[in-house]
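Practice problem: DUF899 domain-containing protein
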Amino acid sequence: MNDTSRAQVVTPAEWEAARLRLSSKEQELTRARDALAAQRRRMPWLKVDREYAFDGPNGAARLLDLFEGRRQLLLYRAFFEPGVDGWPDHACLGCSLMADQVAHLAHLHARDTTLAFASRAPQPDIERMKARMGWAMPWYTITDSFDTDFGVAEWYGTNAFIRDGDNVYRTYFINDREHEPMGATLGSLDFTALGRQEDWEDSPDGYPQVPRYAWLKRHDEYGPAWRAAHPTTTESANHAHRD
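Answer key — structure tokens:
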């Protein structure tokens, strides 16, 4: 990013006026998100009539068991299995990013909600990967057609379930960019001057941009070699803070 493409440098008063203009739009967006969430809470429920089977740390488990006694379940289908890039050491890049962003589960548990991951990898591989990456969420092995039946056979996604006694109902489903509010990294980058630095973004000419997710690595793979291969991003970020 050169001096001619950098954002305008202004006085404190001008900067505050610009911030307030955007702040009003942030508030509009917050209200729009609240309205969408209200519609989700009014979604009809779909009864799950089949008893799906998983393998977990404690052996065989039903979908009902994944709730761990709580009323709600968020079940994220992560791609960690033969044929996935990174196997057998890693899950896919996007799923690894999602796992890195899972907050302390006690906060969800306080609202009677369980978050769990599911893949087709055997449990020994899952436990080895979780230990290596420092992940603590429950992670199950899919052993039947759950992924096909719930829209996550070829792409990641989160299914939301609720239970009434032993009856389980599907209440919502998200995939692709709809997951972004569940993690902190991408949303945090949206508040920065350079944004995500991806080529789909509407940024000023000359800002560093790469194809979507081209910069993404697993958290234990960033290091000197990666930084040496991405000098433009690093130098541009440093340049943006000058003056």
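Discussion: Strands lie at 46-47, 53-56, 59-62, 72-77, 113-119, 139-142, 157-164, 167-175. Students who identified this feature from the tokens alone can consider the problem solved.
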